[in-house]
Design goal:
This protein has 186 residues and is an alpha/beta fold. The chain is built from 4 helices and 6 strands; from the N terminus they run ααβαββββαβ. It is elongated and about 100 Å long.
Length: 186
């Protein structure tokens, strides 16, 4: 009788455990697929195998929720725009005796110690627009890298490499924007 019980227990373990695992895996697959509103792969003939894990990965990837941030432009209002270059007429004593680059052009260091670059560098009141702030003027992106004694409040001074280009820019009044991330509520 004891042998019969041992044999039955072995057979039970041998048949039941794999069957139980198959049922559990099947339930997990069904729950996973129904959670992402995708049907299970079609039934296949007995003995054929279906890579359920791969199906779940593909289905999940194709129905993933976008986590990309939404960027919006926010108006800061109208600013007075002026222009400057690195010369002593525009920069006073800071425009004198500048180091020259290999082509003989003066290297213009800004107040935050970056090298000024036309089309990028602007000077602003850093209590209004701190260093590193990116602003958009007429669809063009600039970075606050400099400041000046007469640059206060809603005023921006745009850097040009030549004094003539700065003079030609003159004084303009334009709406200034910044970008900020907002929650993506897809």
């Amino acid at each position: 009788m004891m042998n019969y019980s041992k044999n039955m227990k072995k057979r039970f373990n041998k048949l039941l455990l794999p069957g139980l695992l198959t049922v559990i895996i099947g339930i997990l697959v069904i729950v996973s697929c129904s959670a992402i509103d995708e049907p299970l792969p079609e039934t296949v003939a007995e003995g054929a195998s279906v890579d359920i894990t791969e199906h779940i990965k593909q289905t999940t990837a194709s129905t993933a929720i976008s986590t990309e941030p939404v960027i919006e432009q926010v108006s800061l209002g109208e600013y007075k725009l002026t222009a400057y270059c690195g010369c002593s007429k525009c920069c006073g004593k800071w425009g004198e005796n500048r180091t020259l680059d290999e082509s003989g052009k003066p290297i213009v260091y800004t107040a935050n110690q970056t090298i000024a670059k036309e089309g990028v560098t602007i000077a602003a009141d850093i209590s209004v627009l701190p260093y590193g702030t990116e602003v958009i003027i007429d669809g063009h992106r600039y970075i606050v890298q400099d400041r000046g004694g007469s640059i206060t409040g809603n005023k921006i001074d745009i850097y040009f490499e030549s004094h003539q280009a700065a003079l030609e820019f003159g004084v303009q009044y334009k709406e200034v924007f910044i970008e900020r991330e907002v929650e993506n509520n897809d």
